[in-house]
Amino acid sequence: MALSRADTSTLGRWWWSVDRWTLAALLTLAFLGYIMVLAAAPAVAERIGASSRNLFFAKQVFFLLGASAVMAGVSLLSPRGIRRLALLGFAGALVLTAATLVIGAEVKGARRWLNLPLVGSLQPSEFLKPCFAVVAAWLMAEAKSAGRRGWAAWGMVLGLYAMVALVLQRQPDIGMLLVVSAVFFTQIFVAGINMLVVVALGGLGASGLVGAYFLFSHVQKRVNQFLYGEGGASYQVDVALEAFGAGGLMGVGPGEGRMKNVLPDAHADFVFAVVGEEFGLLVCLFILALFTFVVVRGLTRLLAETDLYVILGASGLLAQFGLQAFINMASSLHLIPTKGMTLPFVSYGGSSVIAIALGMGFLLALTRKRMNRAEEGTLR
């Protein structure tokens, strides 16, 4: 039954206040994720000797259904409710991320995963990203509203960032640290901090990148492979580029791709290459357009917003969403050094897809039309 504008129920108010265009774009991406895992996952499962060819596909259907429920449920909250949930989520994710350094499963020299009863494998740092973006936005808004007395809030947000950076560096997960830092610096810039401070922080970030190159051998290897071709280009990138070339404009057809049979992580980090081979350039451009639409639409919604907390929170979440999509697609196309990062909603992954849904739920809640701010319960 259609919801009337006169419907004052929670669901009715949500339907007429949420950005339905953004919601539709996100659900379309989730549907594409279902299609692409259906296309790529069986070949991967068979290659690694999984108990069933449909193992990854069945799991991803469960993940996507859970993600859709999380996104819808979180989008019902008020900005104040979002702040509270983000604070709890940040505290829990930070503790669990720190726990990976002690009891985490080591994979390829890094400790990023926890094996938990009932839950299974969990990458808690994925949940740090959206939760920290909202917490940082709240503290920055508090600091700006306090004027010269806001030094305590600034000190707190910088301290929290330092804690997150330290934990991610120790895992190590330099790619995740890069995304968190880029989003954090974006929020600082949007907050209107003195340009000298912004330039100084930018210099600090650049120094960190240079330091990562010299301190972490896997970072140096990937950068050298990208810039100089040392040791030959990455096998995965070679196969991915071959897949894009084979797909051409229209693709070879759903399920007809061959590169997924030999491409490691074809269902996860390199799912965009499977899209390119089986569905062609046009569908790749459509996916790119969907990500662009979500980011631009979100920023447009903020033009009429006056609450700094909402502006900073939504800006950080949009920067995070867009940057993660860019990193995945650009590394698949060999435009940047390879980085194991999923394509939001399209790649296989439990922790990743649920965390992204949480972040987009935050975004939908923050950008809802609030005709009655006292009823909606804003931050202040």
Structural class: mainly alpha
Helical content class: 55-70%
Tally of separate domains: 1
Give average pLDDT, whole number: 86
Outline: globular
> What is the element string, with H for helices and E for strands?
HHHHEEEHHHHHHHHHH
Total number of helices? 14
Main sheet overview? 3 strands, antiparallel
Estimated share of beta-strand residues:
under 5%
Order of strands across the main sheet: 1-2-3
- Distance between the ends: 36 Å
Our Rg estimate from Cα atoms comes to 21 Å
Properties at a glance:
single chain, 380 residues, mainly alpha, 3-stranded antiparallel β-sheet, 14 helices, globular
Structure description:
The chain has one domain (18-371). The radius of gyration is 21 Å and the shape is globular. With 380 residues, it is mainly alpha-helical. It has 14 helices and three strands.
Quick description:
With 380 residues, this protein is mainly α. The protein contains 14 helices and 3 strands. One of its GO terms (molecular function) is lipid-linked peptidoglycan transporter activity.
List the helices and strands and how they pair.
Layout: H1 10-17, H2 20-47, H3 55-75, H4 79-103, E1 105-107, E2 110-116, E3 120-122, H5 125-146, H6 151-170, H7 174-190, H8 195-215, H9 217-228, H10 235-247, H11 271-301, H12 308-332, H13 350-366, H14 373-376
Antiparallel strand pairs: 1-2, 2-3
